[in-house]
Amino acid sequence: MTDSVKYLLPEEKMPKAWYNLAADLPEPPAPPLHPGTLKPASADDLAAIFPRAVIEQEMTTERWVDIPEPVREVYRLWRPAPLIRARRLEKALDTPARIYFKYEGVSPAGSHKPNSAVPQAFYNKQEGIKKLSTETGAGQWGCSLAFAGSLYGLEVEVYMVKISYNQKPYRRALMETYGARCIPSPSNLTAAGRAILEKTPDTNGSLGIAISEAVEVAASRPDTNYALGSVLNHVCLHQTVIGEESLLQMEMADDYPDVVIACTGGGSNFAGLAFPYVRENLKGGRQTRVVGVEPASCPTLTRGRYAYDFGDTGHLTPLMKMHTLGSTFMPPGSHAGGLRYHGMSAIVSQVKELGLMEARSYWQTECFAAAVQFARAEGIVPAPESSHAIRGAIDEALRCKAEGKAETILFNLSGHGHFDMQAYTDYFAGKLVDAPFEEAALKEALDALPQVG
């Protein structure tokens, strides 16, 4: 093993193809269902809001999908992203474990999200689309699509979950800097938003509501498409550049992870890092534990039901078979806004059902404690979402210490927290509290799941 801290791939080693785990799963993914007929959705059904190239990637069973050279050219602005050995954190924890993290905060938008925003914008531009509508929770995806839209001359309209819109004004400012319009959701601009406001005018909003608004806008204009930042297969596909790079970088370190960890909200950054290692596990080589970490206030994988459900609150999207808390479930307000989604990616959910991954949940205060410990050791202030992965990695390192095992831990640091400092201010002031959801509300949402034969 080397003494290096950073493992930097040269640009020519950047992956030339995205990896599709669906090709290697022992069972094919369950198809999405049309929201009106509850029959498997066709490519034509999806064409109202997505470009053909994206639909093909959503449905493909091919193992590898070539990354277009113009997309790779943009990727070179920040990719390959560094793999970093967290030696100072290891010392602070006094653990025999070796801790590595893949750092995605080096992108222009500060997170992993441009890995999918850039190709989505590219494919839409190719098909003559003029405008993209989308939702965003904490703002990482909204910033990334705004960045990608600016590269390709696309108008971008972002519906940002209201509580995050108020908590994170600098994310809004970054979207506007890139030329996008950012709107608090729910809004009075859509029928879906007005219906929610009429029922609950003081709502904090949710990703499910914001998705409904963005989809409604895209479906109503022929020059406008919808872009999604997580959950769907094509987004998970685009993110696998993370894991494919890390495999090469772990070779450079002469090491291999015993445990791979990432936070889970919709599932994209988890899939990006973990799916290439799930592939290696399925091939029967050296086995790696794969762990997804989610907020205890929105515990989709650990408390959700595996069932068909709508991806949005307004029931405009196709139904997906996924771990879900119910499309009407309203998660409590938390600073990890990107993880406040009622459902989980269908393919990540399937991986969980097949026993190919583990899932655990943490409260936000214990995640912020881990984030502060990490920042004081490694110098990087993590996004609140990423702090969940750090909490998981620290707990694994402490387990190794207790058991006297020198295991290798790899986690995804999916973004920096430079625009999330109010959350840290609240944490240090003792204002950051753990807000549990009401069990009765969860039961009500699960009881309302659609009946699919």
From TrEMBL:
<keyword id="KW-0057">Aromatic amino acid biosynthesis</keyword>
<dbReference type="InterPro" id="IPR036052">
    <property type="entry name" value="TrpB-like_PALP_sf"/>
</dbReference>
<feature type="modified residue" description="N6-(pyridoxal phosphate)lysine">
    <location>
        <position position="113"/>
    </location>
</feature>
<comment type="similarity">
    <text>Belongs to the TrpB family.</text>
</comment>
<comment type="pathway">
    <text>Amino-acid biosynthesis; L-tryptophan biosynthesis; L-tryptophan from chorismate: step 5/5.</text>
</comment>
<keyword id="KW-0663">Pyridoxal phosphate</keyword>
<keyword id="KW-0456">Lyase</keyword>
<dbReference type="InterPro" id="IPR006316">
    <property type="entry name" value="Trp_synth_b-like"/>
</dbReference>
<dbReference type="InterPro" id="IPR023026">
    <property type="entry name" value="Trp_synth_beta/beta-like"/>
</dbReference>
<dbReference type="GO" id="GO:0005737">
    <property type="term" value="C:cytoplasm"/>
</dbReference>
<protein>
    <recommendedName>
        <fullName>Tryptophan synthase beta chain</fullName>
        <ecNumber>4.2.1.20</ecNumber>
    </recommendedName>
</protein>
<comment type="function">
    <text>The beta subunit is responsible for the synthesis of L-tryptophan from indole and L-serine.</text>
</comment>
<feature type="domain" description="Tryptophan synthase beta chain-like PALP">
    <location>
        <begin position="77"/>
        <end position="415"/>
    </location>
</feature>
<comment type="subunit">
    <text>Tetramer of two alpha and two beta chains.</text>
</comment>
<dbReference type="InterPro" id="IPR006653">
    <property type="entry name" value="Trp_synth_b_CS"/>
</dbReference>
<dbReference type="GO" id="GO:0004834">
    <property type="term" value="F:tryptophan synthase activity"/>
</dbReference>
<keyword id="KW-0028">Amino-acid biosynthesis</keyword>
<dbReference type="Pfam" id="PF00291">
    <property type="entry name" value="PALP"/>
</dbReference>
<dbReference type="GO" id="GO:0030170">
    <property type="term" value="F:pyridoxal phosphate binding"/>
</dbReference>
<dbReference type="InterPro" id="IPR006654">
    <property type="entry name" value="Trp_synth_beta"/>
</dbReference>
<keyword id="KW-0822">Tryptophan biosynthesis</keyword>
<dbReference type="GO" id="GO:0052684">
    <property type="term" value="F:L-serine hydro-lyase (adding indole, L-tryptophan-forming) activity"/>
</dbReference>
<dbReference type="InterPro" id="IPR001926">
    <property type="entry name" value="TrpB-like_PALP"/>
</dbReference>
